[in-house]
Amino acid sequence: MKRSMYYTWAFSFSFKMAELRNRSAFFEFAIEDKFIAGMVLTGTEIKSIRGNRVSFNDSFCYFSKGELYVKSLHIAEYAFGTHANHDPLRERKLLLTKRELRKLENKIKERGYSIIPLRIFMTDKGYAKMEIGLGKGKKLHDKRDSIKQREADRELRRNYKDL
Questions:
Q1: Do 102 and 138 touch, CB atoms closer than 8 A?
Q2: Alpha helix ranges (H) inside the chain
Q3: Fewest C-beta atoms under 10 Å: which of 18, 19, 55, 137?
Q4: Pair 126, 22: CB distance under 8 Å
Q5: Is 46 left (phi over 0), alpha (psi -120 to 50) or beta?
Q6: What pLDDT is attached to residue 9?
Q7: What does DSSP assign to residue 81?
């Protein structure tokens, strides 16, 4: 009887991880649509993600033979991994429904659209998911507008804080 109570307690522990965001994506691109995709990962990759050891620098998504992959997403090697450790920059397959894949592939054929990784998060079941965004690259004047908007919002928050 005591053993079953311990077993229930041990596995009712919920693991909360801070989500990893690609902050530069919102500055560089105007995001029009967002999708949640599963990721095909190895054991050492998931352990590194849980340790927040991911870098989005220059990462992007592309289609190959009707499947979506993410490239240049750096997941650091797991510190306690053995010879079976993963390659940090390997291409990782993303899992989406056929309808979502077709929609993305048709949009990509239009000029100027890109698929960008926006964030990585863990579900309640412990699966790593990636939010990807369909967007167009911003021009220099659009980036300036973003900076002005951000500074105006910051000023408003300061004024409200003083009240």
A1: no
A2: 2-11, 23-28, 43-50, 98-109, 140-162
A3: 18
A4: no
A5: alpha
A6: 45
A7: -
